[in-house]
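Narrative of activities, Objective 1.

The group set out to show that a structural description can be obtained from nothing but a protein's sequence at a throughput compatible with the screening campaign. Below is one input-output pair from the validation batch, recorded exactly as produced.
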Amino acid sequence: MQDFSTYNQFAEEKLGVTFKDITLLVTAFTHRSYLNEHKKSVKEHNERLEFLGDAVLELVVTEYLYLNHSEPEGILTNWRSALVRTESISAAAAKFEFEPLLRLSRGEKQGTPRARAQILANSYEAVVGALYLDQGYEAAKQFIEKSVLSTFATILETGSWMDPKSHLQEAVQSKEGFTPVYRVLDEQGPDHEKIFRVGVFVDNKLIGEGVGPSKQAGQQQAAEVALKKYKLTKR
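Output recorded for this entry:
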């Protein structure tokens, strides 16, 4: 019989519950790649739990925003997107020390930081799914509240819920009265694989550049670069 004591301890210390079926939690940490290397001893990976947890997460966050804020639907949707996006939930998973419990193949353990962030985000949703099945909605809700909804004040304060273009425009207009202007600086590649280099200008001064497979993607990256510089210089 396998020893799942580490997962039991994690559930009690980090999630505040005692699992009736600890294999649900173990499965929540099991990546598809691990299953491929342990086909005889492991029968399920976490993607089905992730599917369930994604729905529970979105419901809890939507319920919280609806009950506590009276803003229009568009703003509530943007706030929800900021709370449940990969970066937010992978950060929550890292804060709650998910990483040592991940069951990954040898190859996935050597993956890029971006790949690891996605794996952490997926495992977060899977853990929410496991909590929901084993402990019920309220237990899943409490975990989401302390791990994700607790960051909402910071998201509002920093304006990170806005896309970079909207955020930059608001910051520049409030401080200088100008509207950022985007211009294509360069295009490279054939028509079906073009790469656009885009600059964003304030009062005819270049404050950021970005590249992307479309003008829109280049604009977003340029805005993101400009926003970081702008925050540093306008403190």
